[in-house]
């Protein structure tokens, strides 16, 4: 007997709901039509029983044995380039499987979503395909990306997404016993993805803990856009009708439950519910066991209990934020996710939030809360000045030397300030109607420093330091170094070569020489730093000096020497500063990076995890360069063949740097290089080349004279060579050989560049030059590396292939 369209329609809608919500939905949809209710209920019961039967059967015979019966659902089935491996979860709309590449081209795990058995109606398929189309337009770190899609042999649609190896956000908070601040930080990350979706005119409409997974790095990702709405389209109007709303009542806004039009504030409400639940452990409104009518009434009328009454660690500001997000009327909520996120950030930073009334007392209290130290110091200064007037006559003789020293320091600071103002003022008459650049102003100031203050060497040194700092901030490395070396001479005359001031300027110079690629000069400065630090008798300074020398040895390929220096640096810093200091963490970072380069990938990764744990525990440790830490972790994960995790860290760090510092941030060149490596391993040579070109752009922008220019040309040549595009590889490999031979003459990387260039030239019958380069390359590599090193083996294979030719 055929099923009526109305029964099929209700069945397809009800099957997408949780079992607890199905009965309420059917009673509301069927009204007084008991026969219709009974018929749909019986179909749902049968569907449940059959699903249980097949689930039980699969445990006995294995799901792969059922692949012939339903090729779109069961394990071992190949869908396009993907093979289903195991069932991750099943919902009313579809089943989600863990899958892997079936063609063996590269390693990758993904999640594949297919339409559930029986849901082959036009409405169900349309909604499923709509989700796929929505995901295709959303590419963001906090959203599980769409990677692929298609239709199976039997016509069932499927799509492939990022596999998120994590747990739902509420479970994550429970397991890690997240503090109030940590829970807010997680929701702020989630809000980034929601904001992105909104900017792309997509409302999620089903934000809840099961659709927000947090990976083991503590990074949340949004899933399941199955009932999302595209704002410029009316393609899913039926979803707003009262009898056809596949929502989760506990997290749905009042207007969505009433079947009214929705906008971005609908997602604001749902995020408010999620945050309330994370902070208190309960839902703002208990909807358990309510009929649809009772649900509407309670959600529309009852206000949530103040969150601070459930958790006394929640202050009134955060409670006010939650109340505004959970407002019944959309007009009373935050107008956007950006507004909600802004208030949460203000709360986190101790600033006033818009959810509270902006009284003077409130804002003043928040200011004092943010600036306790400054306010306290100001108070002490005022009290001290008052006391000084009373005490001056008794202590004048005893404090005269101190008074003169303070006056001298004040005069120096005032003179520096006056000088900087004067050089900017002097630029006015010289401009003559044109724009004067900051560089021209600094050049003018630098000339004046050379001519003035000849009788005040200390003040002259101060001026040099100030202008050099501005040069460095502008990326003008040559000008920076010239001034720093002049200042070095002055400081040596004023304070001596074993002074703290001289040590500090040498450290800055070594860093500067490192930055521009003058490794030999930086190494010489590092040896001098070690000698001075021993005279100073400061263990922390000795540790920093040994760390600097280790880095220069590392960059020049002396891994054994670098290992000794790094370990000595770590020993000294742990002894003098302890494990929680930023400088100790930096020493661990250097050692872990070296271990990764020399093949101890797991040991390196364990150290990176230790540094990360310290960084999270010691909140004041802001100086740790997170980019360096994330780079190290991603490189280790790449070497451990955990490519998805590595790429996730690279992408997150890249996005964060661009957001904070802009697209030209120097450190992004290292991230681009790492992303290129992962893409190359996966066989995605187009993406590998694109990221190497980005790395080259950044290197040429910031340090065009650095040896890294040679390295990036080597990488570009290698990728072209792997694609059998030697014609394109040869020019870049020639540049690599030239630059690296000049900048790093004793480094094994020169051998890599030479044998690769030789192998490419052999393709064009340039036999004499090719053989010479191959032999030189092998000789250089075997001098620096063990015979079983992969670089040596590849070079020898290339030489053997050349010599074996007819």
If you had to describe this structure to a student in words, what would you say it looks like?
The chain is of the alpha+beta class and 806 residues long. 65% of the residues lie in helices and 6% in strands. The protein is built from 32 helices and eleven strands. The strands form three sheets. A six-stranded antiparallel beta sheet has the order 1-2-3-4-6-5, covered by helices on one side. Strands 7-9-10 form a three-stranded antiparallel beta sheet. The longest helix has 60 residues, at 372-431. It is globular and about 95 Å long. The relative contact order is 0.04.
Reconstruct the topology from this structure.
Layout: H1 5-14, H2 19-30, H3 34-61, E1 78-79, E2 82-90, E3 94-101, E4 109-115, H4 122-136, E5 146-151, E6 157-162, E7 166-168, H5 169-176, H6 180-199, E8 202-203, E9 212-215, E10 220-222, E11 229-230, H7 254-257, H8 264-280, H9 292-301, H10 307-310, H11 316-325, H12 337-348, H13 360-370, H14 372-431, H15 438-451, H16 457-473, H17 477-495, H18 500-516, H19 519-536, H20 539-555, H21 559-577, H22 582-597, H23 601-617, H24 626-639, H25 643-661, H26 668-681, H27 685-702, H28 708-722, H29 726-743, H30 749-763, H31 767-784, H32 790-803
Antiparallel strand pairs: 1-2, 2-3, 3-4, 4-6, 5-6, 7-9, 8-11, 9-10
């Amino acid at each position: 007997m055929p099923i009526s369209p109305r029964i099929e329609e209700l069945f397809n809608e009800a099957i997408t709901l949780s079992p607890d919500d199905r009965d309420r939905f059917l009673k509301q949809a069927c009204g007084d039509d008991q026969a219709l209710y009974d018929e749909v209920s019986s179909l749902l019961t049968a569907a449940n029983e059959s699903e249980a039967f097949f689930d039980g059967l699969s445990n006995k015979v294995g799901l792969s044995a059922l692949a012939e019966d339903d090729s779109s659902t069961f394990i071992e089935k190949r869908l396009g380039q993907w093979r289903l491996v195991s069932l991750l979860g099943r919902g009313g709309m579809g089943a989600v499987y863990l899958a892997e590449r079936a063609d063996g081209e590269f390693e990758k795990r993904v999640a594949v979503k297919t339409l559930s058995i029986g849901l082959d109606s036009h409405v169900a398929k349309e909604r499923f395909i709509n989700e796929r189309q929505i995901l295709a337009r959303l590419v963001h770190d906090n959203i599980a990306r769409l990677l692929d899609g298609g239709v199976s042999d039997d016509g069932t649609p499927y799509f492939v997404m990022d596999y998120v190896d994590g747990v739902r956000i509420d479970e994550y908070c429970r397991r890690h016993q997240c503090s109030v601040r940590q829970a807010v930080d997680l929701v702020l990350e989630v809000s980034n993805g929601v904001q992105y979706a909104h900017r792309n005119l997509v409302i999620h409409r089903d934000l809840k803990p099961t659709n927000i997974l947090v990976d083991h790095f503590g990074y949340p990702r949004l899933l399941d856009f199955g009932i999302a709405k595209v704002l410029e389209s009316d393609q899913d109007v039926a979803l707003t009708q009262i009898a056809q709303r596949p929502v989760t009542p506990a997290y749905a806004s009042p207007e969505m439950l009433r079947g009214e039009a929705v906008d971005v504030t609908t997602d604001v409400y749902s995020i408010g519910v999620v945050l309330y639940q994370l902070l208190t452990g309960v839902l703002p409104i208990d909807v358990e066991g309510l009929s649809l009518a009772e649900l509407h009434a309670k959600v529309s009328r009852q206000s949530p209990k103040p969150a601070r009454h459930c958790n006394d660690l929640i202050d009134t500001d955060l409670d006010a934020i939650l109340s505004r997000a959970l407002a019944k009327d959309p007009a009373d909520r935050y107008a956007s996710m950006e507004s909600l996120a802004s208030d949460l950030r203000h709360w986190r930073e101790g600033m006033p939030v818009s959810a509270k009334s902006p009284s003077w007392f409130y804002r003043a209290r928040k200011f004092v809360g943010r600036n306790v130290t400054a306010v306290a110091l100001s108070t002490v200064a005022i009290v001290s000045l008052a006391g000084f007037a009373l005490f001056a006559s008794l202590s004048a003789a005893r404090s005269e030397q101190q008074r003169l020293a303070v006056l001298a320091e004040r005069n120096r600071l005032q003179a520096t300030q006056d000088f900087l103002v004067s050089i900017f003022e002097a630029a006015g008459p010289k401009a003559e109607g044109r724009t004067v650049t900051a560089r021209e102003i600094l050049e003018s100031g630098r000339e004046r420093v050379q001519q003035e203050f000849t009788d005040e060497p200390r003040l002259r040194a101060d001026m040099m330091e100030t202008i050099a700092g501005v040069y460095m901030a502008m990326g003008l490395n040559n000008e920076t170094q010239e001034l720093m070396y002049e200042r070095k001479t002055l400081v040596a005359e004023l304070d001596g070569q074993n002074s703290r001031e001289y040590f500090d300027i040498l450290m800055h110079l070594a860093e500067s020489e490192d930055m521009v690629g003058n490794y030999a000069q930086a190494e010489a400065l590092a040896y001098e730093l070690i000698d001075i630090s021993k005279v100073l008798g400061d263990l922390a300074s000795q540790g920093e000096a040994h760390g600097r020398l280790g880095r220069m040895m590392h960059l020049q390929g002396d891994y054994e020497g670098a290992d000794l220096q790094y370990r000595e640096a770590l020993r000294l810093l742990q002894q003098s500063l302890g494990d929680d200091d930023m400088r100790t963490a930096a020493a661990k970072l250097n050692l872990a990076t070296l271990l990764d380069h020399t093949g101890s990938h797991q040991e390196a990764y364990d150290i990176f995890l230790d540094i990360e744990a310290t960084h999270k525990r010691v909140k004041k440790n802001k100086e740790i360069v997170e980019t360096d830490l994330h780079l190290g972790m991603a490189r280790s994960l790449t070497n451990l063949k955990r490519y998805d995790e590595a790429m996730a860290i690279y992408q997150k760090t890249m996005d964060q740097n661009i957001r904070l510092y802009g697209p030209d941030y120097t450190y992004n060149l290292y991230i681009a290089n790492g992303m290129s490596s992962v893409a190359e391993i996966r066989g995605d040579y187009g993406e590998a080349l694109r990221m190497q070109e980005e790395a080259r752009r950044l290197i040429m922008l910031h340090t065009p004279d650095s040896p890294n220019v040679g390295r990036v040309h080597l990488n570009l040549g290698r990728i072209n060579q792997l694609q059998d595009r030697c014609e394109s590889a040869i020019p870049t490999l020639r540049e690599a050989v030239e630059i690296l031979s000049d900048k790093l003459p004793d480094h094994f990387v020169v051998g890599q560049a030479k044998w690769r260039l030789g192998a490419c030239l052999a393709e064009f019958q340039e036999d004499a030059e090719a053989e010479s380069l191959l032999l030189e390359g092998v000789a250089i590599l075997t001098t620096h590396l063990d015979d079983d090193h992969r670089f040596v083996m590849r070079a020898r294979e290339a030489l053997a292939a050349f010599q074996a030719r007819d």
